[in-house]
Write a structure and sequence with these properties.
Layout lengths: L8 E4 L5 E4 L5 E3 L15 H24 L7 E11 L3 E11 L5 H14 L1 H6 L4 E6 L1
Parallel strand pairs: 5-6
Antiparallel strand pairs: 1-2, 2-3, 4-5
Helix pairs in contact: 1-2
């Protein structure tokens, strides 16, 4: 594997903390969401993960679209990241990727969505580790 880029972000304070990227592009306070006993109106790990995964996933979908000769430039993905309780004191993430490709029949869209999920680096990183559903809308 050839390393092409490394992002460095320093986190401190956990869910009620702060993150800052090495280059200063990201510099923000974090709070647990209200549903987890925190305060809405701030970034949290699930929001950041959903945004990053969505951006990466659309890159993979673009590659699949080019490969298959389908225009996916207007595609969107809504990434749902859920924070779930597992047993007494354990937690796990789950995800749903809702993929919308305008002007493409559902069966073709689902095929493209699944292919992008197969190749997306974030999808690869989570495969076998969390429950993930990929749904063409």
């Amino acid at each position: 594997m050839e390393k092409l880029y490394t992002a460095v972000v320093t986190a401190k304070g956990g869910r009620d903390g702060h993150i800052r990227s090495e280059d200063g592009v990201i510099d923000m306070e974090l709070k647990a969401p209200k549903a987890l006993g925190g305060e809405d109106g701030y970034a949290n790990p699930e929001l950041l993960f959903a945004g990053a995964w969505g951006a990466c996933y659309l890159g993979a979908l673009g590659s699949v679209g080019v490969r298959d000769g389908v225009n996916v430039t207007q595609a969107t993905v809504d990434v749902h990241i859920s924070f779930n309780k597992e047993g007494e004191s354990s937690y796990a993430l789950s995800a749903e990727l809702h993929v919308h490709i305008p002007g493409v029949d559902w069966d073709v869209a689902q095929k493209l969505a699944d292919a992008a999920h197969k190749g997306c680096p974030y999808s690869k990183a989570t495969r076998g580790n969390i429950e993930v559903k990929v749904i063409a809308d």
